[in-house]
Fold each of these.
Amino acid sequence: MIPWKTFKFRRKLQLASLVLEEKLTTYDKLVAYLHSLHVEAPSLDEYSACTEKLPTSSASSSKKAPVKKSVAGKAPNTTVEDPTEVWEAGLDGSYSNKKTAKAPAKRKTTTKRSTRSTRATKKS
């Protein structure tokens, strides 16, 4: 498990923004979400301090921008991928032997060099 501080600094995350974006209303939901990412959750004190500063949901919902419909008429992608499946698929793809993969490099042949013959000296 990755410590929360390390994860936060590497991803440049703020706990408040993560709670708002993922709609993590309780500490248990935050712990479950971070566990699915293999990250240790922050302390309950840090979570409660963060949620006290957040605006209430009724105030934020009244100020939301209208949702734009896509031009092509396609529904937005709302599926959530499991991180472990994505990781395993990446590993499988990196080690698979595909037909599109490059063939190993061939050894270049060199021209035969003529070597100088040496005279053998005779011992007397």
Amino acid sequence: MRNCPHCNQQISIEGIKFCPKCGKSLMQQSLESKLAVKSTCPNCRADLNPGKNFCPKCGQQVSTLSDSAVPETGDVSLKKPPLKVEQNHLTNSVTLSHPESKNKKLTWLIVSAISVLVVIAAVGVWAYSQGYFMDNESPQVTITSPAYDKTLNLTSENRVEEVIEIKATDNRKIKKVILYINDAVVKEFNEGNSYLYKWEADNAGSYNIKADVFDNKGNKATSKTIKINVLNNSSNNSSSNNSSNNPSQTNEITNIKATITSHYMNIPSNLALAHDSFSNKLQQQQPKENWIKSFSSTISDSVDKVNVINVNENEALASFAMTSRDRSDGGKTIVRKWEGQWKLVKENEQWKLDEPQIKMVSENYE
């Protein structure tokens, strides 16, 4: 049997949660009885029972031990923060909560939020570095080999081969490079900076080569178009045979070779005469004064070979190889090997160099 802590009504029914007289909760009494600790009278040191306001021995008024009081026995288990009683008014149930559990939950939420923010930031940095957003700069693409228009002869097996090399760069990330020959897609590359493709042909004709590059944002760039002319070997043989039987044709081939050879032999000893080997068009494109300044460190140029590919009344095409020697800043001599082609035109009955197509094939120091 127990009494209601609010109206002192005696209650004999076990297990009920509310007083049948005043309707107030009986859980507080149960909780206080569980949390109550033994205390002594401050006047006579007599033992006091929980819930008494006066000492039964000396009559001294005393206060009941609070929930947070620590008994003289020194039980450290009672030093924990008091439990908080929470009542659910919908279900009339009572729950006990501890402040530490709420602190742990709050800490977990903060840590989780920080972790999510870190992941989002990392993804954003990666997407930015890959150029998926905030990238308005277009990539760059160049066909580095062949670096100029080129003429090839079909072999006896009626085929030619050429290695096409593409160089592509971007401020962020390249997505793909597409190679075209005569506007038809022949190869698609993914990522990287340098791309190689072995091209083969078995038919004479003109082939236009270009490349497109795309970055992850969709920005695009297109390379300069390079042309490869494939000649039929049988027609070249016929031309050679005709030239051997035609003194006039043989003389033209000799003059073409002499024009190319003398041009390089006059560098740098007679640069003005070397410049005179150019056609009127090329002289306008490369004024003499500016062109001469570009040979300030040149020691010599020499022709290794010249081969006339095709010649008609006013135009000719010849391939050649040459070696240049230049002074370096370190005092050594830079030796470079060059290969290419010259298109020549006839002006005032003389063959003139009109359009160069030259590339460096090697470099070393002496």
Amino acid sequence: MKITKVLIAIIVISCMSLSIVVVEAADRENLTAVAIQPLLNRHQLAGAVTLVVSKDKVRSLETVGYADVAAGHKMEPSTLFWMASSSKPFLAIAVMMLADEGKIRLDDPVERYLPEFHPRVEALTQDGRHVVLQKPAHTITVRSLLNHTSGTSFLSSLEHGKIDALPSTARIDVYNLEPLEFAPDTKWNYSQAGFETAARIIEVISGMPFETFMRRRLFEPLGMVDTTYLPTDAQVARLAKPYKGSVDGASFEEVPIFYLQYPLANNPKRFPAAGGGLFSTAPDLARFCRMLLNGGTLEGKRYLSEAAIQEMTRNQIRPELLQDNKLEGGWDNYGLAWQLINGTYGHEGAYGTNIKFYPKAGIAVVWLVQTPDPLGVGRAGRSAFEKLVEAAFVSVVK
């Protein structure tokens, strides 16, 4: 079956107005340009790289716009992107690899692996006059770290909003100094600290730094040559610069990545951030997605069991923790580092990146942009692109 024409209404968001533009996409080509050209015209997005993959091959790889507006560098397949929280599934896969080997059990207390980890929760004394810190009634488990029910904070106050400010051992010490935001397993709250704690568990079990484990066990075997937590100067030269649109819609304003310390390369003050510090490219992500689409294998090598993938991508959140049948981010539910929406699973990042799997159709869609407005123009462009992809691919991929 061939899709000959797709008709879609694209919502275009600007600082001054909201309008709807109706466009056509021929066959399966130039879907990215069709989806975001109005946003490029209004200087709300500088560019994008998009990817559609199935189990056996790349179905579509498109580049639109600029990675560096001032230098005139266009988006390329090799353009590097900061993945932000789209990094989280990679950490969960590392945990599940060790679970497959019997070295981690999801429902074990974190203290089994990190005896020094003993955060407390605030409570009132019996007379109601004083606040004290006490051991929580529910133990923080490895599972609760990965599904955001541990009670750990987004970041500690001592990290000053930077996810790469502390080495892994120091992070655990700092997390012990501040109270949990709530008693474990009683609420859902998005937590960077929980994922950094899980990364420290990997270090203790494997006997190697987290980034070394990821490189040796996942990135290098998969052929992900540009996927890293600490990019080199050469890689940073290919990094898509983050831009936000100007008020007048006539130009771009370059903005730094707020959550990271500069310079990004060769900076001894920067440390790998498991929950949001990954950098990658579309070709690398294609191999990652194909591995998951093939049930944890790629080109004859098994990385992960199918049972582990099923566990990560099933709902892990009790209904009473939802509000209006949704989680805080608007997702239907949450697995282990995967957002679950309408039968799909994926994860978005703070500067607009997104990885999304359609299990029944057997495809994955990757959306790579760099904008500090991911819930506005970033999500508007992505939504338009995904609708075009769904019309062109989801109904026909077997």
Amino acid sequence: MGFRVMRHAAMTPPDRAMVLLSERIPKRCEDVCFSISGDEIRASLDGDESVSVTRDERVEIGRRAVLDALEEVCEREPTLALDWYAVAPAG
């Protein structure tokens, strides 16, 4: 399952928020793999959820995993704030 990391629309992150994150985010964090293409950050998850889980539940579980990985990065880097970023399913 794939996701997009973007600037949070309801917050006021600095103009360079995505650049700052792309400079500091690892290629892999736990079960989440990140890739950067231009100013876009994509995330994909390893592993499959149980087939008994609905698609909406899988999306929310995946989104939460990506947010948890971003939180780790932001906690280590004082120039970043987690609330600057939003995660949505890649479409």
